Amino acid sequence: MTTVDTTATAGAAAAAPKVRAKVRATGQNPVMTWVWNTLGLGFAVVMGFPIYWMIITTFKTNKDLIAKDPTFWPQAFSFDSYKTIFDDKECLPGLQNTVVITLGAVVLGLVVGFLAAVAVARFGFRGRNFFIVTMLVVQMVPLLAIIVPLFVVMNKAGMTGTLFGAMLAYLVFTVPYVVWTLRSFIVNIPAELDEAAMVDGCTQWGAFFRVILPLTLPGLITTGVYSWIQAWNEFVVANVLLSTGGQKTSMIWLTFYATTPTRGADYGSQMAGALLVSLPVIVLFVIFQKKVSAGLTAGAVKG
To answer: Which domain holds residue 178?
Structure first.
């Protein structure tokens, strides 16, 4: 018969909790926790200080703005910078043009890019791999390299100087990004789900709306938010295409506003305009932050 050394077994069992406790104590070292928290807080302060300085500058009076020694907190709060911004007759029209162009570019980009991503991920056709590589290469080409031929094409089509023309031009950088990003989400959806839906009586479009679309929703939100940021902050294409029509987006307005002789030294109103232009993007990102985080990880398994 085989005998078991109960003493050794009991000793090992008693030592195991001590080892685990020691590992936990090492992983939860209070000194290192304090060090990392301090570093993280310091990094947050460094990254957040420019934002704080921009916001606080908008509430400073002219006396504080031109003071020899910078003040980190205004002696008196003033809203004159915001009044100056809204009194400018090109401010609100520029912001309105930006909203129209960005919204149209994002919606069209998501529709066209999503359908193209479904075709690339679900169907096999000649030149499929070449198309996928092309979408990646297009994103690597800087806008300055294609702005001249883009202007020539849009000018011959009679779309320069119009908001719709700028909206279509924005598809040059929104559609490739949407196709490349959403393809990874759709690839991770098993094709057997589509087949099961069609076996249960769904048409191909029915399977698309009932299976693919709901499961790709986090990816759509993620790509939509980043496409919005790209389109909202775009300057070069809008400046070239809208110059003939005399229209401006908020980025064009803010750039020329800051370089005018009368407003070039008005730092309070410049910061107020920058905050006004940046605020919609910040609010949008905060609202969809959880969806964006889920979307970034949902399509990262394979593809």
So the answer is: 85-300
